Every structure is written in C-alpha cells, then in structure tokens.
Amino acid sequence: MKKVLLSLLVCVSILTASAQDVITKTTTVTTASHDYLFYPSQNVYFEKASGNYWYLAPGSDTWTMTQTLPPTIVVEKTAQYPITYVGTDPWKNNIGDIKKYKVKKNGTIKIKKIKKDD
C-alpha cells in the first residue's frame, strides 16, 4: 500500500512540475522605412535601393512588382515625387497618394495638401 501511495505521489509531483513549465515565445517584427518615388501620371512606385517598380496593370486589381516595366508603361522622370513608407508595399496608401498628387486633365499635376481628417 505504501508503494502504491508513494508511486501515486511521485506521478502527481511529476505532472505538477511539468505543468508549471511555461514556454514563452516572442516574435520581433522590424519595420524599416523605405524611400520610393511615385509617378502619379502612370500610378507607379519605384524604390531606388532595390530597383523595383510597383504598378497596377490596366484592368487588374493586383499590384505587380518588377525590375522592368512593361512597354505600355513609360514613366516621366520630371513628374516624380519622393515618398517615405514604412514597409515594403508602398501602394497600400495609393488612394491617398493619388489624392495628394492629382493629375489634371491637361496632364499637369497639382499637389494637394491633405488634412489629417481626409
């Protein structure tokens, strides 16, 4: 009887000790800002550091990343605006960028100051 009771006590002690082992896992996410150029006439982003372009193909709702633009998209080097974005998807703020760098019907660009509540 003592052996059974002692065995039971040892098993309970082992289970209790193992239940108290807590493993904590910490995930660190590093977010760095990247410098992009935005070409509002073509709705294209370019990152000098990587040489990557992001563009929205006509008739598509998916942004494409490439190092060479298709021949149908020609960027105007004179109408480029620097944008700093934290992350690697600069197009996520595309609606705001389009509002800020509005292309007029005559092809010129009017930079609009965006209020915080816009």
Report what the structure shows.
The structure is a single chain. With about 120 residues, the chain is of the alpha+beta class. The chain has a domain at about 35-110. The protein contains two helices and seven strands, in the order αβββββαββ. It has helices at about 1-20, 95-100; strands spanning about 35-40, 45, 50-55, 65, 80-85, 100-105, 110. Strands 4-3-2-1-5 form a five-stranded antiparallel beta sheet, with no helix packed on it. A two-stranded antiparallel ribbon has the order 6-7. The longest helix is centred in the N-terminal third of the chain and has 18 residues, at about 1-20. It is rod-shaped, with a radius of gyration of 28 Å. The relative contact order is 0.16. The mean pLDDT is about 80.
What pattern of helices and strands is seen along the backbone? HEEEEEHEE
Overall mean confidence score, pLDDT:
79
Sheet-strand content, in percent, reads 25-35%
Q: With helices defined by DSSP (H or I, 4 residues minimum), what is the helix count?
A: 2
Summarize the structure in short.
This protein is of the alpha+beta class. The chain has helices at residues 2-19, 94-100, and strands at 33-39, 44-47, 52-56, 63-66, 81-86, 101-103, 109-111. A hairpin with a 5-residue loop joins strand 6 (101-103) and strand 7 (109-111).
